Amino acid sequence: MDAVIIAAGHALAHGDVLGALKRVALRDDPAALVLRGLAMAQMGELERARALLKSAARRFGPGEIVAKARCRLAETEIALVLRNLNWPETRLTEVRSVLIFHGDQANATHALQLEARRLLLLGKPDRAEALLQASSSASVPAQLAAGHHLIEAGIAMRRLQVQRARQALAEAARHAERSGIAALQAEAQHAWQQIDDQMVLVTRQGSASTMTLDEIEPILASPALVVDACRSLGCLDGQIVPLATRPVLFALLLALAQAWPADVTRANLLSQAFGARFTDESHRARLRVEIGRLRTLMASMADIRSTHKGYRLAPRSGRDVVVLAPPRPERHAALLALLADGEAWSSSALALALGTGARTVQRALEELVAADKVQRFGKGPAQRWIARPLLGFPTTLLLPGPLPGA
């Protein structure tokens, strides 16, 4: 490898994109194409970068296995930025194996971090953490150490472990500062600011107030029965009752929890759970059936007692009841939470992350475009969707993933 390529690579590694381009802009050998592709990617020209990397991979000879693996690694990183998340799980495993075998530990660690980031986007922080534990942040370059701690912070936030996330972000910021790469420093700062900005509406004994994520963590660790309207679940002492797929039952639980310790009339329950404008015997019979189902599911946490007017929630052992909800109701909130990261998502990637059908996501996106909350650009398979983060919107609580305490 000649001195110009080495100098360009060194400039790129330290965030000097223009310095790298100046050295290789007029060259078309495979190594120069790779560096041009990486530089274009850092400048946001992702499609052009991908084309350059594919061209470089084709030009490398059959004996240049490491160079081809590095090209595949860079292409995969671009796919991650473009939110094309449905690549085979073995892709990065194979790349990592080649890089480790040939002694390129830094790029092998980078490949591992990319796979962990993908798993995190798909709402699988347990698998991301297991993967991250296979690497160490102690003996890697500063930018990789910063990336390691940023992923740790993301895993902690998916579990609503706010203090642990802040500790990881502080480490990420320290390593990012040491690396001298402005983009890494901005990412750590943005993640910290996102924690500060998010608010949650907390209702307890009929009184509602907004709280920060730092104030939410002790509530989740308390002995109270928590009804989480962001994730549609009830939790108590580490036990979880997920009700995201049972919207009627969750609507009943939410109405009872918001009114606790008072009871809720049958008419109000029918209105909130079924949208009934009037009541008759068939409505009342259906309410009794649904209350019975909810009583069975919540048996280990609370009882649902019949009163003269309606029904009342009675937590086990006289526990307190706390309701967590977004400060304002948002239709398709989980979709908005994913889009709030500022990246351009494809509808297929959104469906993959949410675990739902592509057509369902398409309909929701069309509604959000009509409401001027989401923008789209491109056509056909290249169409992407983007949204500006909503101030105070609790994206952390709305992201798909494991339930708190699970």
Chain-wise SSE layout:
Elements: H1 3-13, H2 17-24, H3 30-42, H4 46-59, H5 65-81, H6 90-101, H7 105-121, H8 125-132, H9 142-158, H10 162-179, H11 182-197, E1 199-204, E2 207-212, H12 213-221, E3 225-228, E4 233-236, E5 239-242, H13 247-259, E6 264-265, H14 266-274, H15 281-297, E7 302-306, E8 310-315, E9 321-325, H16 333-339, H17 347-354, H18 358-370, E10 375-377, E11 384-386, H19 395-398
Parallel strand pairs: 3-9
Antiparallel strand pairs: 1-2, 1-9, 3-4, 4-5, 6-8, 7-8, 10-11
Helix pairs in contact: 1-2, 1-3, 2-3, 3-4, 3-5, 4-5, 5-6, 5-7, 6-7, 7-8, 7-9, 8-9, 9-10, 9-11, 10-11, 13-14, 13-15, 17-18
Largest sheet descriptor: 6 strands, mixed
Instruction: Indicate the low-confidence ranges by residue numbers.
Output: none
Strand content: 5-15%
**What does the radius of gyration come to?**
25 Å
Query: How much helix, percentage-wise, in residues?
Result: 55-70%
Q: Structural class of the helices, strands and pairings?
A: alpha+beta
Summarize the helix and strand pattern as letters.
Answer: HHHHHHHHHHHEEHEEEHEHHEEEHHHEEH
Spatial strand arrangement across the major sheet:
2-1-9-3-4-5
Query: Per the principal axes of the C-alpha atoms, what is the gross shape?
Result: elongated
Terminal CA distance:
51 Å
| Number of contiguous helices | 19
Number of strands: 11
- State mean pLDDT (0 to 100 scale): 84
